[in-house]
Amino acid sequence: MYSPIKTLNFTGGYPEKEVLRNLELNLPKGQFSALIGPNGSGKSTFVKYLIKGLQPLPHTLYLGNKDITKIKQEENATLISTVNQTNHLPTGFSVFEITQMGQYNQKINDKENVLKALALTHTLKFKDQMINTLSIGQQQMVLLARAICQNTETIVLDEPFNNLDINHTQLLLKILKDLIQNENKTIFCIMHDLNLVLSYFDYCFLLGKNGKIYSQGTPEETITQESLKSVYEINAKFIINPETSKKIIIV
Amino acid sequence: MLKKYKLTFKATTLLLIILLVIFTFIALNVGSVNIKIDSLFKEGTMENFILKKIRVPRIIGSIFVGAILSVAGVVFQTLFKNDLADSYLLGISSGATFSISLVSLLGFSLQNLFSLPITAFFGSLFAAFIILLISRRNQENLILFGISLNFLLSSLTNLFVYLNKGQRDKIIFWSMGSFSSMTTGKMLVVGIFFIITTLLISKRHKELDILLLDEQSALSLGVNVKKEKLILLILSSLSTAIAVCFCGVIGFVGLMAPHLIRAINGPNNKQLLILAPLAGGLLMLISDTFARTILPAGELPVGIITSFFGATLFISIAYRRKRNV
Predict the structure, then answer these.
(1) DSSP H helices in chain A
(2) Distance in angstroms (rounded) separating the CA atoms of residues B100 and B118
(3) Which chain B residues are closer than 8 Å to A87 by Cβ?
(4) In angstroms, what separates the C-alpha of A89 from chain B's closest C-alpha?
(5) Interface mutation target, options B214, B221, B223, B268, chain A, most CBs of A under 10 Å
(6) What's the pLDDT tens digit per position in B116-170?
(7) For residues B67 and B278, is the Cβ–Cβ distance under 8 A?
(8) The whole model's pTM is what?
(9) A101 with B209: Cβ contact below 8 A
(10) Side-chain-side CA neighbours of residue A244 (13 Å)
């Protein structure tokens, strides 16, 4: 079966510490998926592999049907774009210029596409403002616009809802859902807020402390009293949201 | 809508070119011998000889050297994400004088127009790699390391020049810089290298912009960070070597020119790589014109003038910034 990100017996980490072991992950195409797991379970490390910041063993990590070790950096950026957790944004660049950097991989200067990406993330009104004058939430939206500009099948976001207020959280959720529906994107988020995952996501991978996938499936199936006990070592209870009939964790 | 910067790219370019032309004419006219500019067209006279063989190479040469140092400055500032970086302050210039003084102490003659730049290049590249390795471990104190490396390499340079009998009087030339030995040949070599390295660097203006972001973002956008940094480091070390090998270490121009342009026109590297060399050439021309006319007899090393203004700017930037010095 085709999947935008696929791992086969993937092992990864740093020389001094192996973080991910025998990872088997098939990201479902065209869905809203989450990667969850405790701190230090290797979620952000996995993103580093996806952008070739770390080099995996051959035949263990595939983007589309291609072995990532055989993909050049520039081509990699046409398959996967990311919105990272920490960003250094240089002073003196406008929102438009920062977004346009997303077109580096395609060797084009397509202004309309940049404007379209900004419109999709509700940041078109800031296009001539300096990036550093925006709030964290607004910057996050611009960085998503830059990822959209890369024109990739998959967008990976590393804890995108951190530092967002409730208004921006709802806005980002809506934008991501729209991208899946209207632009045929696959969205893969690293998440800590399990209630958001339960309420909004289609699919979910739970990383255990040993660096293996503990369970996967719909959030409802994956996030259970038993799995939270075993992976996060907490005793959680659930209530049902009467509006959406989705589960909510109460600790 | 708020206007981004004080001047547009076109206005800044035009202004700098006009200033360059004006100062070139002034520089042609002033000097220890009073010469009218029309002597340039009177073959056979002494005035014509001075203009053609001494003043023109020196003036054009100083513009090229200022320009090439500014391009190197732009690249170093981007590579190390530090607007105080410059070939002088990182010790890369003294890397070049270090290898020149060492090789000539060992008894090799460096009279040839190409053996000098090549020797200088190895030294500047050596220093640049040390700085690159340090920057991977400790980005915060990079300039401090750079200044220390500069002291270390220039003290070794001075030692080697001092030990090399008959060269002792050249210590001032190597450590403070001078255009007094500029010739038409040297001017042409600097000019050719300036054009080649600047074109090669300008081709990478998008990569330079993206390298100003963090490494993860640059990788994610498709920039092969390690490869691009290596290429840019080699090109900027080469630029530094070419400037230093003919006229010694002239500090701070590579810091002042890009800084001035960023303040007027913003950090966009495509435009910066056109404007900064214009501004650097202008600054160097003005500094050298002062250097050779300010004393009633003889001349000052040009590095004294650039360091005076450059260090003042350095202090004011560092004071405002508080961190990362």
Answers:
(1) 43-50, 73-79, 95-100, 111-120, 136-149, 166-183, 194-200, 219-222, 225-232
(2) 9
(3) 213-214, 217
(4) 6
(5) B221
(6) 999 999 999 999 999 999 998 888 889 999 999 999 999 999 999 999 887 888 8
(7) yes
(8) 0.92
(9) yes
(10) 11
